[in-house]
Amino acid sequence: MINILIIDDEEKLRALLKRIISLEGYKVLDVTSIKAARQLLTTHSIDIVMCDVKLSDGNGVDYTKEIKEKHPSVEVILLTAYGNIPDGVQAIKNGAFDYIVKGDDNDKIIPLLSRASDKVILQQKISRLEKQLGNQFSFDSIIGNSPAFQAAIQLARKVAPTDTAVLLTGETGTGKEVFAQAIHYHSNRSEYAFVALNCSTFSKELLESELFGHKAGSFTGATKDKKGLIEEAKGGTLFLDEIGELSMDLQPKLLRLLESGTYMRVGDTKESKSNVRLIAATNRSLQNEIEGGRFRSDLYYRIAVFTIELPPLRERVKDIPNLAEHFLRVYATKTSKIIKSISREALEALKQNEWKGNVRELKNIIERAVILEDSNVLTLQSLPFELQQNKADSHNAASFHLASVEKLHIQKVLHHTNGNKAEAARLMDIGLATLYRKIEEYHLKH
User: Fold this and answer.
1) pLDDT of residue 62
2) Is CATH 3.40.50.300 the right assignment for the domain spanning 139-311?
3) What are the extents of the domains in the chain?
4) In this structure, which topology does domain 3-132 adopt according to CATH?
5) Which parts of the chain register pLDDT below 70?
6) Per CATH, is 315-442 categorized as 3.90.580.10?
7) Three state DSSP letters for the chain
8) Domain 3-132 shares a fold with domain 315-442
9) Is residue 314 exposed (0-12), middle (13-18) or buried (19+ Cβ within 10 Å)?
């Protein structure tokens, strides 16, 4: 509900306005002076102020400026008995939503409140989204308490407020883009765009066009001018993932941008300018790439001013339960499932995995497991067969019991046949009814 405050020292008019506006579903408070309004604005949540221009203790036009400075989200509508252009102009300059004449403009009050309410609601939505965005990309939202990972977070916190180029290194799936986004949203460029590009997903020609843009007619199919991502990121942050894949032809062009802030669109004859901060990432050793003649040393020293290495997941095993539980909450919400926890067996299996795909692999495995799980606890049987096998291999002698071996074998065959029970029964040379009985007996998922 929109809360409205009326400030007017004319009792009859104030009472009339309060009644009319209340009938439209608004919650209305009223005071007779600026002094009373100041106090009420600090103790109540007010969305719109309707204020008389001439009050016993001040001028409404001047007070509008004070309201907007102290409560910028509050919309102000000024009411006056005798409208004049200078007052109206100054009111708008001071931040008023509108300025109307009592009596003459009474039929405009409700439509005007409706428009002001729409603006308030939109601002509230934007504020909530910005808060969610800030929470999503904050350093506090990055999960990991291992010393090496916490050291990486501390380095990122320190470099974030600067314009220094950052190079994030580490294996695929360790969270380099998550770090890049957090650095951007804690920088002075956070109000501008964060633009990400994976250099390994485009051919050399397409990558140049995506990055720098092109002029119409510069190549076959270029029917109109195209903005490059450098231009899209102007004022903000350009994140180049897998920068080790950048061709030798494009490397000097990127170096030129970093050194002079200028670049050339494909097919253009004049320079363009763009002020961007570069964050790059790689899973390769760029030093080895330099020695092999595949990466320019001058570009490397320009992008690696501040290097942060992200440790692989296998080196921070203690973080796995927290990460797994986080992904469980995310995907249980997305799939509308009530899965409250992860079983001890499942957690042990997760901790024993090699995690060659790091956090990204863990995320995908939990998503799949949530889809398969039917109970309110994520069980070992919902995890991929390979993780169940790892758990069995590391278990005590009971894992060699015939039932344990049979259960894992059936699960493996079902995994191989993508859940096709008839094909699985054929491969194991057993009856389909027997297979169904075994699935029921071992509570198998597929």
Assistant:
1) 92
2) yes
3) 3-132, 139-311, 315-442
4) Rossmann fold (3.40.50)
5) 104-106, 127-136, 390-404, 445-446
6) no
7) CCEEEEECCCHHHHHHHHHHHHCCCCEEEEECCHHHHHHHHHHCCCCEEEEECEECCEEHHHHHHHHHHHCCCCEEEEEECCCCHHHHHHHHHCCCCEEEECCCCHHHHHHHHHHHHHHHHHHHHHHHHHHHHHHHCCHHHCCCCCHHHHHHHHHHHHHCCCCCCEEEECCCCCCHHHHHHHHHHCCCCCCCCEEEEEHHHCCHHHHHHHHHEECCCCCCCCCCCEECHHHHCCCCEEEEECHHHCCCCCHHHHHHHHHHCEECCECCCCCEECCCEEEEEECCCHHHHHHCCCCCHHHHHHHCCEEEECCCHHHCHHHHHHHHHHHHHHHHHHCCCCCCEECHHHHHHHHHCCCCCHHHHHHHHHHHHHHHCCCCEECHHHCCHHHHHHHHHCCCHHHHCHHHHHHHHHHHHHHHCCCCHHHHHHHHCCCHHHHHHHHHHHCCCC
8) no
9) middle
| pLDDT at position 426 | 87
How much is the pLDDT for 445? 63
- pLDDT in the model for residue 131: 56
- Model pLDDT, residue 403: 67
